[in-house]
Design goal:
There is one protein chain. The strands form 3 sheets. The protein has a 6-stranded parallel sheet with strand order 2-1-3-4-7-8, with helices on both faces. The chain has a 6-stranded parallel sheet with strand order 11-10-9-12-13-14, sandwiched between helices. Strands 5-6 form a two-stranded antiparallel ribbon. The protein is of the alpha/beta class. Helix 7 links the parallel strand 7 and strand 8. The protein has 2 domains: 233 residues, Glycogen Phosphorylase B (Rossmann fold, 3-Layer(aba) Sandwich), CATH 3.40.50; 148 residues, Glycogen Phosphorylase B (Rossmann fold). Helices cover 39% and strands 14% of the residues.
């Protein structure tokens, strides 16, 4: 089959790009043809045969004139329709796989795909992988950044609440644009043309199903992760937090719990908006170490050495790679019971860690004590982690193809 993968960024930028590059690579290894459509960029590393891409839209830079046109272009893009048509005519895909496409690419490409397949009498499937809540929540997170609270007011297409809450970067102007984009495509019913919606958690599926257009089309499949061999790395005695240092990740709740547990060593690794706060905290507490941002082999070794990791997020996480990575490296996870986290920590097969009430420092403290003091129990969780049931890239791709 021929797969056209659509994503706004065609260079390493985040989780969705890791996903599309891995999936595309595996599809090719299985004998399928794969091309990509998205924005042009100096770091673009994948593409299509006709070299057709949309202009790079940098919301944080660009000329004053280009910024004036952004509000219109983020809702509807004539350029995106024209450019994707060039790819469609040349490549003739059997499947168009949409990923992160809102704002820079816009849902207008769906209209062109539908027009193309009707004119060419082509049975081309449209599959969408939801990496966040962007089609049901204008700020993509079901969270109001101003209050820090999770919010479901826009579910059901009530996008006026985005403007009321200034939900996009705390800006009324940007939130108006997000509201307008939501209503525009709701009224045009464009998402009814999507044949299958792939959700990375059952929790996300439940939220996507609040839109009647998606209900009956959604399927939940956890993301893939490569099996890791951490047997050669000896375990050490410390609890680990790694990832983004921000309020919605529950870092402040974790700091409160660590303050009460001076006899347990904690290691924080990462970067983010409250990084300076974490540094100051570490300077004042002998049991806390801040090691900065880590990646690659250095991060894997740190995770593998930890007694357990802590994922205290307080927003509706989907399928956090950090949780899967920790488990795959043989390190149990103490995770917040919110969003898609519990599906990963406690599966039908086994428990790979423990859960605590999100935002509850008392419950978090108690669970940390349990994992730290009950070595037999924690060892049993480690053994479970080594036999985790997460899909490899090959297994995931086979399941993905079965959906089409």
């Amino acid at each position: 089959m021929r797969f056209l993968i659509v994503n706004k960024f065609l260079y390493p930028n985040g989780g969705s790009e890791t996903y599309i590059f891995g999936l595309g690579r595996q599809l090719k290894s299985m004998g399928h043809e794969v091309q990509y459509f998205g924005m042009e960029h100096p770091d673009r590393c994948v593409g299509n045969a006709v070299e057709a891409y949309t202009s790079n839209m940098d919301f944080h830079g660009g000329s004053k004139l280009s910024k004036l046109t952004y509000p219109i272009k983020t809702i509807y893009s004539t350029e995106a329709r024209h450019k994707i048509r060039l790819v469609l005519d040349d490549f003739c895909p059997d499947v168009v796989h949409l990923n992160n496409f809102t704002y820079q690419i816009t849902p207008s490409v769906i209209l062109e795909i539908v027009k193309w397949r009707k004119e060419k009498k082509k049975n081309c499937r449209i599959v969408f992988t939801a990496h966040d809540y962007n089609l049901i929540c204008p700020n993509h997170m079901l969270n109001n950044p101003n209050s820090g609270l999770n919010c479901e007011k826009c579910l059901g297409g009530h996008f006026l609440n985005c403007a009321k809450g200034k939900c996009i970067h705390g800006s009324f102007a940007k939130s108006i644009i997000g509201m307008a984009e939501g209503y525009y495509w709701k009224w045009h019913k464009v998402y009814r043309y999507i044949d299958t919606v792939v959700c990375c958690s059952e929790f996300m599926k439940s939220k996507m199903d609040t839109n009647p257009i998606f209900e009956g089309k959604t399927v939940a499949i956890h993301n893939f992760i490569e099996k890791s061999d951490s047997e050669a790395i000896k375990k050490e005695r410390f609890a680990l937090y790694f990832g983004r240092l921000s309020m919605e990740k529950g870092v402040n709740t974790l700091l409160e719990a660590t303050k009460r547990l001076p006899d347990i060593p904690f290691v924080f690794a990462g970067s983010g908006p409250i990084e300076s706060e974490v540094k100051r905290f570490a300077d004042k507490h002998d049991n806390v170490s801040f090691v900065g941002f880590k990646t690659g082999k250095e991060l894997k070794e740190l995770i593998s050495k930890a007694t357990f990791s802590i994922y205290p997020s307080e927003w509706y996480e989907n399928c956090p790679f950090s949780v899967m990575e920790s488990i795959s490296l043989g390190t149990p996870v103490l995770g917040a019971n919110i969003g898609g986290i519990p599906e990963l920590v406690v599966s039908e097969k086994a428990a790979y860690g423990m859960l605590f009430r999100p935002g509850d420092a008392d419950d978090l403290e108690d669970k940390i004590k349990k994992l730290w003091s009950d070595s037999d129990y924690t060892k049993s969780l480690m053994d479970n982690c080594k036999k985790n049931d997460f899909d490899t890239l090959e297994e995931y791709t086979k399941r993905f193809i079965e959906l089409i």
